[in-house]
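Subject: sequence -> structure tokens, single chain

Hey, anyone have a minute? Need the predicted structure for the following. Not urgent.
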Amino acid sequence: QLQLVESGGGLVQPGGSLRLSCAASGFTLDEYTVGWFRQAPGKEREAVLCISSSDTKTMYTNSVKGRFTISRDNAKNTVYLQMNSLKPEDTAVYYCAVRSSYCSTYVHHFGSWGQGTQVTVSS
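Reply:
Had a minute. Here:
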């Protein structure tokens, strides 16, 4: 059974760092495009970063430029979202999702999703 599990969220002070993990089971993650999305309270889910099956990386949210990076560890069948210099406006539930085609900013293009992990940036 295809499953994605996010982890690594939590409460962090402004300026701090977190690394989110998206671990896959039941399939080989490096054969798929993986997107990280986030949804803040009262807002729509938005695409943050994406890594294609050929390891092309695409950033969709300018506000994370220079602070967030996406990477893969194929041996662990996991994709990571490294988040540095966190700001209160980064507070959201973060989701990973997969699709078999190229990176996309559209939620409905991704067919399989994890359950999400909460990130709260607050002093």
